[in-house]
Amino acid sequence: MEGWSWPLHGIRLRTADLDLQVMTEADLPSLCALLPDDLPMNPHATTYAGLDDRANRRAVLVQGYWRALGLWSPDDWALPFVVRSGGEVVGAQWLEGPDWRADRTADSSSWLVAPARGRGLGKQMRAAVLALAFGPLRADAAVSSAVVDNGPSLGVSRALGYRDTHRSVLEHSGETLQHVRLERAAWERSGQAHDVVIAGVSPALPLFGIDGDA
Ligand SMILES: CC(C)(COP(=O)(O)OP(=O)(O)OC[C@H]1O[C@@H](n2cnc3c(N)ncnc32)[C@H](O)[C@@H]1OP(=O)(O)O)[C@@H](O)C(=O)NCCC(=O)NCCS
After folding, report:
1. Count of domains in the chain?
2. 118: Cβ below 6 Å to ligand 1?
3. What's the gap in Å between 21 CA and the centre of ligand 1?
4. Mutation test of ligand 1: which of 111, 177, 178, 180 has the most ligand atoms closer than 8 Å to its C-beta?
């Protein structure tokens, strides 16, 4: 097995200021140390009565990583990236295909450490995974959502050409969620894929249900 690695871990994305690599077990301690307190967490994730809020947030991150790679299938996958700037970890970016072979629609979510926000890095890391989705993974569309007062998250979406579609109400908090969508044609017209360098995807294509020779 010398030289072998899980195919997803060869995927690497680069933008003007960022380097995105598929998360590994070795990234988890630094990501846990940097995890921001203001990150909206999945209300359906497992939490533990004996742990405080910070420890539970870390548990959600770590179990989310294991769940993503452990339950992977071409029909329902979640690809987590660790994001570095100048060699330092600054955040995480997820790309997801929850009904991939049926609708070829990619969802995403992300966070940055507070000092890295507001400098255009959120837009760069989303553009990086969109270039992967609409490029070698052949997505038809991308969607995203955020609570209506999350200006930076919706700002990233709107800056990249997503359009508002509909709103829904979160059952657990009563907050209003804005849903947005980006079609392949709008992404291609934007020319933003040119700023992203993608490497190492070919060996992983079968995991997305794509014949590598097609
Ligand atoms: C969401 C997040 C990743 C965005 O990254 P960021 O680096 O702060 O965002 P950027 O600097 O790339 O800004 C992207 C766009 O949003 C706009 N924007 C930023 N804040 C905004 C606000 N409060 N209202 C409206 N637009 C805003 C920017 O002007 C920019 O648009 P432009 O390129 O047209 O100027 C980051 O803020 C974060 O980690 N937030 C906490 C975690 C979180 O909420 N994650 C999303 C969960 S759904």
Report:
1. 1
2. yes
3. 21
4. 111
With respect to residue 210, please indicate whether it lies within any of the assigned structural domains: no
The answer to whether the beta carbons of residues 60 and 42 sit under 8 Å apart is yes
pLDDT tens digit sequence for 52-76: 999 999 999 999 999 999 999 999 9
* Ligand 1 atom nearest to CA at 40: 47
- CATH number reported for the structural domain that contains residue 169 in this entry: 3.40.630.30
Residue 129 belongs to some domain of the structure: yes
C-alpha span between 133 and 184 (Å, rounded): 10
93 falls within a domain: yes
Rounded Cα distance, 37 and 52, in Å: 12
Q: Name the pLDDT band for 213 (thresholds 50, 70, 90).
A: low
- Domain extent for 154: 7-199
Computed on alpha carbons and rounded to an integer, the radius of gyration of the chain in Å comes to 17
Beta carbon of 120 within 6 Å of any ligand 1 atom: yes
Q: Please report whether residue 69 resides in a domain.
A: yes
Burial (CB < 10 A; 0-12, 13-18, 19+), residue 187, is buried
pLDDT, tens only, 9-50: 999 999 999 999 999 999 999 999 999 999 988 888 999 999
C-beta 157 within 6 A of ligand 1: no
